[in-house]
Amino acid sequence: MSNADKFINLLEEGKIRKHVLPNNAPDYSKFQERKDLENYKFFVNSFALDEIMKCEVAFYNGDEQI
Distance between CA 38 and CA 61 in Å, rounded? Predict the structure, then answer.
């Protein structure tokens, strides 16, 4: 019996619950996108972003083309 056949067999017997199957998560976008945007706006307006922007970054020339 192949692995695919075993998988189908387990599904048919109800030994694998629907919520553990791939691509079966609840819809993320309805509420969570709005909440993420609110959190992002809060972060942008906070002093934390100002502190991050003050940090100096080391020069990186890995993207330069010769």
Answer: 35
